[in-house]
């Protein structure tokens, strides 16, 4: 009888320790984070799945060196750093930073109206306002969770002071952007940096219309057509705020 009780209790403890993986639907419903403290590596690191080991360098980042060009002609200056996780084979931090500079410096991006300026600073700089990370699916999920977001390791996110780009989405894109991977990457950068600049999620304005950049396009275009940019034809393009 004692042996049976011990076995039952042990079974219950093992069940309690099993992690629960949120589904994609739960990730889609997650709200914007509130009040997360910025940090380069999450303080609480969940255990790897049974039978798997953390790859060497997981949760560790290399930072892009040097200073990028001034992006924009006026308005508040937002300084940012760029980092790539050591476990991500490509791109390295330098190539990732170059793609970010090109995207945010485009006349269709956030600096279009001259009300916002952006500039990349070295990883060692102490005056950065935020950091853009390229992180593996597992690490990005953990980093997003520090701000209360459940991404299921599928999508990118933003928590205060951190723009976190999911390396799987960077490498593979999504079905609605099939054949347009470079454009999806531009969308991901503009969308998450848009959150850092204070913009919330927006809705598709109508069947066949361009999707607002702040729409959650990674979860589907909802009848809209793909669009990676906050400014179209020199004007801010936006949808209704998402309730």
UniProtKB/TrEMBL annotation:
Name of the protein described by the UniProt record: DUF3152 domain-containing protein
Organism: Actinoplanes aureus
Record Gene3D superfamilies: Collagenase (Catalytic Domain)
Chain positions covered by the region annotation Disordered: 16-56
SUPFAM superfamilies assigned to the protein according to its UniProt record, in alphabetical order: Metalloproteases ('zincins'), catalytic domain
Source species, domain of life: Bacteria
An MF annotation (GO) of this entry: metallopeptidase activity
InterPro entries the UniProt entry points to: DUF3152, MetalloPept_cat_dom_sf
Domain DUF3152: 55-222
């Amino acid at each position: 009888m004692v042996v049976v009780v011990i076995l039952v209790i042990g079974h219950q403890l093992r069940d309690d320790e099993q992690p629960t993986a949120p589904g994609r639907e739960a990730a889609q419903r997650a709200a914007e984070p509130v009040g997360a403290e910025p940090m380069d590596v999450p303080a609480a690191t969940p255990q790897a799945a049974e039978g798997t080991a953390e790859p060497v360098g997981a949760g560790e980042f290399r930072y892009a060196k040097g200073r990028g060009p001034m992006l924009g002609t006026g308005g508040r200056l937002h300084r940012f750093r760029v980092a790539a996780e050591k476990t991500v084979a490509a791109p390295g931090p330098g190539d990732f930073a170059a793609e970010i500079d090109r995207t945010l410096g485009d006349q269709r991006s956030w600096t279009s109206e001259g009300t916002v300026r952006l500039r990349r600073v070295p990883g060692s700089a102490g005056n950065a306002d935020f950091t853009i990370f390229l992180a593996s699916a597992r690490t990005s999920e953990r980093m997003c969770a520090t701000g209360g977001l459940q991404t299921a390791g599928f999508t990118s996110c933003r928590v205060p002071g951190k723009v976190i780009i999911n390396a799987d989405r960077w490498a593979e894109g999504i079905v609605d952007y099939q054949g347009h991977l470079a454009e999806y990457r531009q969308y991901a950068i503009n969308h998450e940096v848009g959150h850092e600049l204070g913009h919330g999620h927006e809705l598709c304005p109508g069947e066949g219309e361009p999707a607002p950049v702040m729409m959650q396009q990674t979860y589907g275009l909802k009848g809209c057509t793909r669009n990676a940019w906050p400014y179209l034809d020199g004007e801010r393009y936006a949808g209704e705020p998402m309730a």
